[in-house]
Amino acid sequence: MSDKPSSLRPLPWLARPDARAWRCEPAPAEVRDFHSSLPDYAPTPLTELPAWAAEWGVGRVFVKDESSRLGLPAFKALGASWAVHRILAERAANGPERGPITLVTATDGNHGRAVARMAHRLGQDAHVFVPQGVHPRAVAAIAAEQAKVTEVAGPYDEAVRLAAEAAAAPDTVLVQDTAWPGYERIPGWIVEGYSTLCAEIDEQLAAEGVVAGPDLVCVPVGVGSLAQAVVTHYRSRPSGHAPALLSVEPEAAPCVLESLTLGEPVSVTTGETTMAGLNCGTPSSIAWPHLRGGLDAAVAVTDADSARAAADLAAAGVSSGPCGAAALAGPRAALTGVGAEERRTALGLGPTSVVVLLSTEGTAANPHSGADH
Which of 72, 211, 273, 304 has the least C-beta neighbours within 10 A? Predict the structure, then answer.
């Protein structure tokens, strides 16, 4: 990484002019009903940040605060709960009840902990593979959910490979939040689970008098599963207002930015970053068509950008780790500095625009990195 201040280096940025015209099918409506039926469900806060509206010259800025979701410090519980529900319902429909199964996954923290929590709650077992670089306290939090934890001497993609191998054993199911050819149905259920977050935003903005919805939504990206859910939500409407959608990645792992630049999914060699949950080298295969079709822009930010954003969010009363804070760091980088007016135009922003930032996890999600996976 360059030693130059980010304001003096070219911003890793790509804008795509036709994304707001792209359309897809919506997520199933029953997902929100399922989450609403859970005893610990409650919508997470949507907090207004007037200071950033003034700084960026827009009408209003809100942050969706996922620091406490279904008893865990990140949004990942939405996808894990829906996917595990679907897995167990399908298994029950296919024959008489047998013994517990083992739910296997790889994680940088939050997804694995959510799978482990759901497994324990429903009387199943969990086996979680954790790549190098994850803080020991995050590993301990997964183990505290009664999961077997295997620490991997390699990056996230290697942990995924080993988890997939382990899931070939009898009475095991891989519950992974990234997809590849031949493994796409369960990751698709996980993405569907995230749709509840977007539905809540619609209702909360309407309560704030923003009936038309946001003009820009900023989402941190690892393999792209949450971004796929966001694209699905806002690009499945047949007509009417379509917001700009901005993805934010670490400069150390810009797999979506690089893939969009080349026009096809590619793997990148990842470096070290405090945004460990976004430290992913390959886009999810089911996410890629939605990202290619529906993202208006992509930006990559530094660890310093993320740390500054996390501190600023904390000062505003929002708990956010490095990954969640990327949602603030991204538009801040895009809307300030050299070339800001061109980027602002590409995003279609004006003095009355409404911006929503998705802070995907709180500081308790990972003491070191704020994991997204």
Answer: 211
Which entry of 33, 64, 65, 108 is annotated as an active-site residue? 108
Known catalytic membership, residue 125: no
Half-sphere exposure of 156 (CA within 13 A, CB side): 32
- Tens of pLDDT, residue by residue over 190-225, are 999 999 999 999 999 999 999 999 999 999 999 999
CA 112 to chain centre: 14
Structure token pair of residue 80:
């894990």
pTM over 0.90: yes
Catalytic residue among 33, 64, 65, 76: 76
Structure tokens at 298: 């992509």
Give the residues across from 355 on adjacent strands.
61, 216
Query: Half-sphere exposure of 130 toward its Cβ, with a 13 Å CA cutoff?
Result: 28
pLDDT digits (tens, 9 = 90+) for 13-58: 999 999 999 999 999 999 999 999 999 999 999 999 999 999 999 9
Of 335, 360, 304, 299, which is closest to residue 52 (Cα–Cα)?
Answer: 335
Tell me whether residue 3 is one of the annotated catalytic residues: no
